[in-house]
Amino acid sequence: MRIAFVIHRYGADIVGGSEYHCRRIAERLAENNQVEVLTTTASDYVTWKDGYPPGLETINGVTVRRFPIKSRRNLVRFREVSDRCFYDRNHTQEDEREWVRANGPETPELIHFIRQNKSDYDVFIFYSFRYYTAYFGLLEVPEKAILAPTAEEDPAIHLTIFADFFNLAAGLLFLTPEERELVGKAAHGTLPPSEIIGFAVDGPTDIDPAAFRRNRGLRGPFLLYVGRIDRNKGCDGLFRYFQEYLKRKSHDIDLVLGGSAALPIPDHPRIKYLGFLTDREKFEALAACELLVMPSPYESLSIVVLEAWKSAQATLVNGLCKVLRGQSRRSGGGLYFDNFTEFCEGLDFLIENPDIRAAMGRSGQTWLRNNFEWIHILGKIEALIGRTINPSGSPAK
Amino acid sequence: MNDTNILEKWKTAPDVDEIMAYIRRRIDDRRRGGVLYEDEIRSEASLWLTEVLIERAYGESGLQHYLDTLGDWRMQLHPNFTTHRGPVGRLFVWVKKRLLHPPLRWIVEQVEANAWRQDRLNIQLLSLLEETAWEIGRLKSRLSRLEREADDRSCERPNLR
């Protein structure tokens, strides 16, 4: 089968959630299919600044075709259009399409390429509904399109142009049941056929958590947070909660942070910042910690939470995020908190009951193994393509 | 089933819904018993107020955008100039590399120490701003409690008019 993935950014060094998800799926599907990625030259997700030359290259066995960006994201214009679309009830659908253009990355050559060459591919898999590449690309080939919306609870999903857009695709790929519910509510009518695929975690096997502790000077037990240290990820709240928690509890525990920091980290003896962690270091940190804490209120799929379960570690997540809450309940892999008191009580419970904590970690690991191995994910994608798109390219509905 | 039995059961078959219900029961029991009740409510109120205040401060000032793009502000002394535009692009790269970059780098090197100090100062100022919002949250929650107490006391007094 000839499959084209269409995504706003792509590269081995790009760490964004949907971009990483797309790359891993493309690489796996390329083992048995002819896979090509149609993407842009952007590397920066805020400004769409160029990071790659246009043209063809091969990344981990996958052909990548890059198209130049017409212009970088103009943040002032984007803010103006956003204000109009999200706060002015009298805005039009053209305003909303303008929002998609302003959101970018605006790559008319990519859209032109899809229009001219659609017969060369059996199926197009579009990532992230909010971006120019997915929205305008899918409009060119709805009959051959599978859309992975990677939708989150945010105002963009309620724009009226997307209500019909979700129904245009031949099929939909969701990361979680919560995402399917969210898109189902936003769309007009019944959704096209869909599958919930989640994500399979590949971790290194030769890790040495004790050496990691030694090298990083970590002596006592610690909670771990890995990811972008950012307000959008709820890290400022985590800092406040953890410092307040320490004032009232006598537990000997540190908070260890790994990832790039876009937020000042409190100068506190029990908060330790390790900087960026390599994949191997991340799994060593996960194996060495007591539990992973994920304070983010907006997640469409938290890969690091899945990685914690892969490492048989329990998690404590923000229950205000429906996805994290749902995943914790389905897997049995961790607890959630809706407020500061529950954060304290949940943390106490997990620290004071190491056997239950370990059982939760194992439960998460088993859930992951039973539902999110590559064989399950690829099988679901191929089944959806088979159900929705026939070899001639017209929908099999 | 008593607490010990429940905990034993969860050692082999943890059930998140049951554990969360158990945790919430423990919180309610402590609140009903008056243990830490006032303290926790104050903390909740204070944390909530702080979040609202910080949200407002960030939203109105556009600070979030600057924090999100902090990495872009770092000055690079040895940027990598490349082109994919053929001979014209190569000419531009040569002009940038040989003519524009050396004097600019000299200037950057002269001001680098000050830029670093400014960078640290910015981070400290942002921490201070956050700390201030945090303190305002505390004071606001304390003020509203004192106002409520004052109202209660005034209701107890006879009307002198």
Topology:
The complex is a heterodimer of chains A (397) and B (161).
Chain A: E1 2-6, H1 17-29, E2 34-40, E3 55-59, E4 62-67, H2 75-87, H3 93-103, H4 108-117, E5 123-127, H5 132-140, E6 145-148, H6 160-168, E7 171-174, H7 177-186, E8 194-196, H8 209-216, E9 222-226, H9 235-248, E10 254-258, E11 271-273, H10 279-288, E12 291-294, H11 303-310, E13 315-318, H12 322-331, E14 334-337, H13 340-352, H14 354-371, H15 374-388
Parallel strand pairs in A: 1-2, 1-5, 2-4, 5-6, 6-7, 7-8, 9-10, 9-12, 10-11, 12-13, 13-14
Antiparallel strand pairs in A: 3-4
Helix pairs in contact in A: 2-3, 4-5, 8-10, 11-14
Chain B: H1 3-12, H2 16-32, H3 37-61, H4 63-68, H5 86-156
Helix pairs in contact in B: 3-5
Briefly summarize what is shown.
By secondary structure, chain A is α/β, with parallel strands linked by helices. Chain A is built from 15 helices and 14 strands. Helix content of chain B is 80%, strand content 0%.
How would you explain this protein's 3D organization?
The complex is a heterodimer of chains A (397) and B (161). Helices cover 43% and strands 16% of the residues of chain A. In chain A, the strands form two sheets. In chain A, strands 3-4-2-1-5-6-7-8 form an eight-stranded mixed beta sheet, sandwiched between helices. In chain A, strands 11-10-9-12-13-14 form a six-stranded parallel beta sheet, sandwiched between helices. The mean pLDDT of chain A is 91. Chain A has 397 residues and is an alpha/beta fold. The longest helix of chain A has 18 residues, at 354-371. The two termini of chain A are 19 Å apart. Chain A is globular, with a radius of gyration of 22 Å. Chain A has two domains: 2-200 and 373-388, 3-Layer(aba) Sandwich (Rossmann fold), CATH 3.40.50.2000; 209-371, 3-Layer(aba) Sandwich (Rossmann fold), CATH 3.40.50.2000. The longest helix of chain B is centred in the last third of the chain and has 71 residues, at 86-156. Chain B has five helices and no strands. Mean pLDDT of chain B is 72; it is low at 155-161. Chain B is mainly α and 161 residues long. Chain B is elongated. Helices cover 80% and strands 0% of the residues of chain B. Chain B has one domain (36-156). Chain B starts with a helix and ends in a 5-residue tail after the last helix.
